[in-house]
Write a structure and sequence with these properties.
The chain is of the alpha+beta class and 112 residues long. 27% of the residues lie in helices and 38% in strands. The strands form two sheets. A four-stranded antiparallel sheet has the order 2-5-1-6, with helices on one face. A two-stranded antiparallel sheet has the order 3-4. Strand 3 and strand 4 form a beta hairpin. 12% of the residues are buried.
Length: 112
Amino acid sequence: MQYMLLIYVPNRPVTPEEREAAMPAWMAYSKELQDRKAFIAGAPLAEPTSATTVRAQNGKRTVTDGPFAETKEWLGGYYLLDCKSLDDAIELAAKCPAAQYGSIELRPVVDM
């Protein structure tokens, strides 16, 4: 079963030094996912200030710069995982480095 692991992080700038110091943990986590054959895809996302919100309602398209709402956390990245069970996905989510300072949302991918 596939699960989307959504990584929410505190809404604050990360310094280059903080990012560099965190990289070994992220690399080790990604390697573990690959070694367990759970990794399908994953990537970090740019900060919410780079976002564009698009709506197409009642035949009218509107485009808005920036994030849709002010939040204390923002979606910082994702992993798409192939797991045997929800328990397996929970175990892998708990090992994500961001679980120590943010939150991880798990959602099953609907098989269409």
